[in-house]
Design goal:
six-stranded mixed sheet; 247 residues; 7 helices; alpha/beta
Length: 247
């Protein structure tokens, strides 16, 4: 059994108090921490210091995997890596971890959208092709991680990976929140666990896509950090999730 603590969209300092209060309720010691992007507001790099220090002081020596969100601006990735080196930042990259006799490949990405936002279309028109091509790139990374011995694959994306858990958000903005193409990758590649954020108003915390559990761990949506109990069962993971409510 692997205990995972996951969250996203802290937008420090905006939801920093909520993050701290939620974290203080957690009584277990997780094996792995996953941060699914938008940890700060408007690329306020220094506002991540509070989150960083809280996590590394409370959970010393526990691996912390983080991806960038749209609020961690492109071009500043190395600055985040330099200032917060304990976090393992993944930017369209993967890492293989061996934990509790499990060899896990973790793919980390900002993710893709079916449509670039209007701002992105004006200022970064190249994102249109990037978003179209990213699912294939993710697919190739999964194959590579498996070729290097990863028995299980986790996908961590900031943006959503399906429309099936976007309820709560206005339907007309769904293409700006997620990539429906990612859903096909999840099915075809038999990913074992998917974690994402970005969907602040999503009312569905967990859905199932062809046996794969997909979690929206956005802090504004869940109102607390998410705890996932990941149990391998003869090549198929059983997943259970608790939103720790205290005491």
């Amino acid at each position: 059994m692997l205990k995972i603590l996951a969250t996203a969209d802290i937008h420090s300092p905006r939801f920093l108090d909520l993050f701290i209060k939620s974290l203080n309720k957690v009584k277990i010691r997780p094996d792995l921490i996953i941060l699914a992007g938008d940890l700060v507001d408007k690329n306020n790099i220094y506002a991540l210091k509070h989150v960083y220090e809280i996590l590394i002081n409370k959970y010393e020596e526990i691996p912390i995997i983080s991806v960038f969100g749209n609020e961690e601006y492109r071009g500043f990735e190395n600055k985040y890596r330099e200032m917060y080196p304990v976090f393992k930042w993944l930017d369209d990259e993967y890492i293989i971890l061996e934990m509790k006799e499990l060899k896990i490949g973790i793919i980390g990405t900002r993710g893709a959208l079916d449509k670039p936002t209007p701002w992105q279309s004006r200022h970064m028109p190249w994102l249109y092709n990037y978003y179209r091509e990213l699912p294939l790139k993710i697919s190739a990374m999964i194959d590579e991680a498996r070729s290097k011995g990863a028995k299980y694959i986790f996908l961590v994306s900031h943006y959503g990976v399906t429309y099936k858990n976007l309820e709560g958000e206005p339907r007309n903005i769904w293409p700006y929140l997620a990539s429906s193409r990612m859903e096909k990758i999840i099915k075809d590649k038999k990913i074992d666990l998917v974690i994402h954020g970005h969907t602040h108003n999503g009312v569905r915390d967990k859905i199932n896509i062809d046996g794969v559990e997909v979690y929206n761990v956005s802090l504004p949506a869940r109102r607390e950090v998410v705890l996932i109990d990941f149990t391998p069962k003869s090549k198929v993971f059983g997943l259970e999730k608790w939103l720790y409510s205290g005491g």
